[in-house]
Amino acid sequence: KAGVTQTPRYLIKTRGQQVTLSCSPISGHRSVSWYQQTPGQGLQFLFEYFSETQRNKGNFPGRFSGRQFSNSRSEMNVSTLELGDSALYLCASSEGLAGTDTQYFGPGTRLTVL
Amino acid sequence: GEDVEQSLFLSVREGDSSVINCTYTDSSSTYLYWYKQEPGAGLQLLTYIFSNMDMKQDQRLTVLLNKKDKHLSLRIADTQTGDSAIYFCAEIDSARQLTFGSGTQLTVLP
């Protein structure tokens, strides 16, 4: 099976702009989770989508939003970008069921906000 | 809240064993994970252990879990230069949210 794919791999934006990141999960996986990785805060959970519904949400402002499509692909949107949003954004896919529900990560999207 | 702690750095000689330690706080975690991150890359799942297990071995990797002390360790036998990376331990809560440690930078010296 193909792994988790994320596009684009790199993005440069300026403050105040908005950005959309995309994630395609492993075939058959119905859950997609998003994480932000920064040198200062480490890896932090943003939100999880399962069957087109946001199931869990981390402690991030409303500028961060997402959605999931019927084919389980997910997008994450950040509006009114701030310098502090510069980070590696990782998505992870899993079956979304109880039990191990092991999450497999994509290569990430490196966002730089100038 | 949940907190996962790891030492930041570890250096070993090629061919030696590496032991990376981790402590966690959420006693309800059902699974604990080890991920590896190489420069510029995402997280690669190395292994995981169910909370009712004490040990799991997978080729060069051995995971030990002391549930009483909430202590997890990852042993890499015969460490190679290709093992140089950042290693994250993580616990999963009932909401399927992973909480990661800060990561341990493993440097393998020739």
Radius of gyration of chain A: 13 Å
- Largest beta-sheet details of chain B: 6 strands, mixed
Structural classification of chain B: mainly beta
| Helical percentage of chain B | under 10%
What's the rounded overall pLDDT mean of chain B? 92
Element order of chain A: H for helix, E for strand: EEEEEEEEEEE
Q: List how many beta strands of chain A DSSP finds.
A: 11
Question: How many strands, which pairing sense, and closed or not: the largest β-sheet of chain A?
Answer: 7 strands, mixed
- The Rg value of chain B, from CA coordinates, equals 13 Å
Alpha plus pi helix count of chain A: 0
Please outline what is shown here.
The complex is a heterodimer of chains A (114) and B (110). With 114 residues, chain A is an all-beta fold.
Structure description:
- The complex is a heterodimer of chains A (114) and B (110).
- Chain A is built from no helices and 11 strands.
- Chain A is mainly beta and 114 residues long.
- In chain A, β4 and β5 form a beta hairpin.
- The mean pLDDT of chain A is 94.
- By secondary structure, chain B is mainly β.
- Chain B has strands spanning 4-6, 9-13, 18-24, 31-37, 43-50, 55-58, 61-66, 71-76, 85-92, 98-100, 104-109.
- In chain B, strands 2, 4, 5, 9, 10 and 11 form a 6-stranded mixed sheet that branches. A 5-stranded antiparallel sheet of chain B has the order 1-3-8-7-6, with no helix packed on it.
- Chain B is globular, with a radius of gyration of 13 Å.
Supply database-style keywords.
heterodimer, A: 114 residues, mainly beta, 7-stranded mixed β-sheet, 4-stranded antiparallel β-sheet, 11 strands, 0% helix, globular, B: 110 residues, 6-stranded mixed β-sheet, 5-stranded antiparallel β-sheet
Secondary structure topology:
The complex is a heterodimer of chains A (114) and B (110).
Chain A: E1 5-7, E2 10-13, E3 19-24, E4 31-38, E5 42-50, E6 53-57, E7 64-68, E8 74-78, E9 87-94, E10 104-105, E11 109-113
Parallel strand pairs in A: 2-11
Antiparallel strand pairs in A: 1-3, 3-8, 4-5, 4-9, 5-6, 7-8, 9-10, 9-11
Chain B: E1 4-6, E2 9-13, E3 18-24, E4 31-37, E5 43-50, E6 55-58, E7 61-66, E8 71-76, E9 85-92, E10 98-100, E11 104-109
Parallel strand pairs in B: 2-11
Antiparallel strand pairs in B: 1-3, 3-8, 4-5, 4-9, 6-7, 7-8, 9-10, 9-11
